[in-house]
Amino acid sequence: MDDMIYPASLVIVAALAFIFYRNKSMIMMLVVLAVGAYIVFSHETGYSSANLKSQIAESIDESVKDYDKSHNMGLSKDEE
Question: Which of 2, 36, 55, 67 could form a disulfide with 13 if both were Cys (CB 3.0 to 4.6 A apart)?
Answer without folding.
Answer: 36
